[in-house]
Amino acid sequence: MKMTLRWFGSLHDTVTLEQIRQIPGCVGVITTLYGSKPGEVWSREAIRAMKEEVEAAGLELSGIESVNIHDDIKIGISTREQYIANYIETLENLGKEGIDLVCYNFMPVFDWTRSELAKERPDGSTVLSYDQELVDKIDPDKMFEEMEANSGGFILPGWEPDRLARIKELFQMYKEVDEEKLFQNLVYFLKAIMPTCEKYGMKMAIHMDDPAWPVFELPRIVNNKENIQRLLDAVPIMNNGLTLCTGSLGSNPQNDIPDMIRSFKGRIHFGHVRNLIHLAPGKFDEAAHLSSDGSLDMYEIMKAFYDIGMTGPIRPDHGRMIWGEKAIPGYGLNDRALGATYLNGLWEAIEKTSKK
Ligand SMILES: O=C(O)[C@@H](O)[C@@H](O)[C@H](O)[C@H](O)CO
Ligand SMILES: [Fe+2]
């Protein structure tokens, strides 16, 4: 396991590489070419500049989160061919620059969804939260505005303003796309890119749907053990792998996360570890990483990662906003640093007791 932190680049992030390097045991960052649009080709020069900046700060560029997928690929219309060709070119350029991990998601229209971005907890910290009843009251067309209004002026990852322009049109286009069609479109995409991935040793790591059920009647297909296993079996090579996100899977209490980690051994290339509290069906608050602060057992989760011989990057996922920090919701320095330290502590204890 390699402990890493997500970083949004010096233009967008309040957190600096220098700060990240001072988190004990944090060896790298997971980043992206922020500002690039889904479907664009990433140039080698831009990739190299991003990598050099990270390395100059004494860190490793451990992977990309995300190279976003153009909606035409998810919808499966003929224009997908050009976007797939562009994606392949980006993968080649990343591979040539020595990057071998790409996180992505296959959620229609929206990336992760929350009803509140700064819900106050009893200790005064604020967290992201989800309440299906509140989301049901939101007009999907207005969802971008809702999120933007609550983001404290920051651009939210996955909620870049340019997606907004096509929202009405997109909802219309997804009318024809049910779960099966979305799944087939994902398999089509993966089969097309796999030869390039094999050539460069590129590990594709799909992020789980968040939350793990359909939102605004849009289909969701990466949300439980059965669906994920089906995806791994449909393209049964190592390069078709997962970003195992405990907070996304954990939104549904039916998901047994340690069991899933063990079952997907060999195919988990990247781990997102965070905790949440189940309040009612379809309702949860994000929490501190500490097991006792939420509903997930972080010891069992880290133990499962240890038992499968996880060598890839793990990062603390969304943190709470604490100590007056102002940052991208979920991505402040303070609580993610506490999270990294706690997860490193669990790992050390698991490692030492396992060797006895
Ligand atoms: O923190 C997360 O993991 C999520 O907030 C996503 O934005 C995630 O980065 C994407 O779904 C991956 O493509
Ligand atoms: Fe995640």
From TrEMBL:
Cofactor(s) the record lists: Fe(2+); Mn(2+)
Matches recorded under Gene3D superfamilies: Divalent-metal-dependent TIM barrel enzymes
Entry keyword annotation includes Lyase: yes
Domain of life of the organism encoding this protein: Bacteria
Pathways involved: Carbohydrate metabolism; pentose and glucuronate interconversion
GO molecular function: ferrous iron binding; manganese ion binding; mannonate dehydratase activity
InterPro entries on file: Man_deHydtase, Xyl_isomerase-like_sf
Entry keyword set: Iron, Lyase, Manganese
GO BP terms: D-glucuronate catabolic process
Catalytic activity line of the entry: D-mannonate = 2-dehydro-3-deoxy-D-gluconate + H2O
Top-level enzyme category: lyase
EC number(s) from the headed UniProt entry: 4.2.1.8
PANTHER family recorded: MANNONATE DEHYDRATASE (PTHR30387:SF2)
Function: Catalyzes the dehydration of D-mannonate.
Stated family: Belongs to the mannonate dehydratase family.
HAMAP family hit by this protein: UxuA
Protein name (database record): Mannonate dehydratase
Species the sequence originates in: Alkaliphilus metalliredigens (strain QYMF)
Gene name tied to this protein: uxuA
